[in-house]
Amino acid sequence: MNCPYKGKLKLLKKDSQLIQAIYEDVKRNFADVNSLKFNIELINKIANEIEDYHKYKLGKKKIDKIDLFFKIYETIYGQLNDKDKMQIVDTLTFLNDNKKIKPRKIIRFLFDILKNVFFKA
């Protein structure tokens, strides 16, 4: 059943699709996911995916990026304690302060979409 969702349900559906896509990508590409729990590159990749999602899929809609990040992270690793969350927030702050979290350029974004459409077999 493919219902056209509107408003808040449409946003929740898109959030769920992003969470599921990142979860499947991480599980598929890494055998021991637990060894990457505080890996700065994985945290950066997830944060950049959220930036892309926010810029290119949602337009001007407001989202809580930190909340979405933790939804994704908890989908991968389960419930996080406060100490773990603070460590991740510190890492995200470091990445943001050093301008490592940013959406892809539109041309790169479109190229990646076309590459997936034509070369995914």
Description:
The protein is mostly helical and 121 residues long. The chain has one domain. The protein is built from five helices and no strands. The protein has helices spanning 7-29, 40-57, 65-77, 82-97, 106-119. Helix 2 (40-57) packs across helix 4 (82-97). The longest helix is centred in the N-terminal third of the chain and has 23 residues, at 7-29. The model has no long low-confidence stretch (mean pLDDT 84).
Q: How does the SSE layout of this entry go?
A:
Layout: H1 7-29, H2 40-57, H3 65-77, H4 82-97, H5 106-119
Helix pairs in contact: 1-3, 2-3, 2-4
Label this structure with key terms.
single chain, mainly alpha, globular, 5 helices
Strand element count: 0
Secondary structure: helix percent: 55-70%
Integer-rounded radius of gyration: 15 Å
Overall outline: globular
Distance between the termini: 26 Å
Q: Look at the structure and give the mean pLDDT.
A: 84
Give a concise summary.
With 121 residues, the chain is mainly α. The protein has helices at residues 7-29, 40-57, 65-77, 82-97, 106-119.
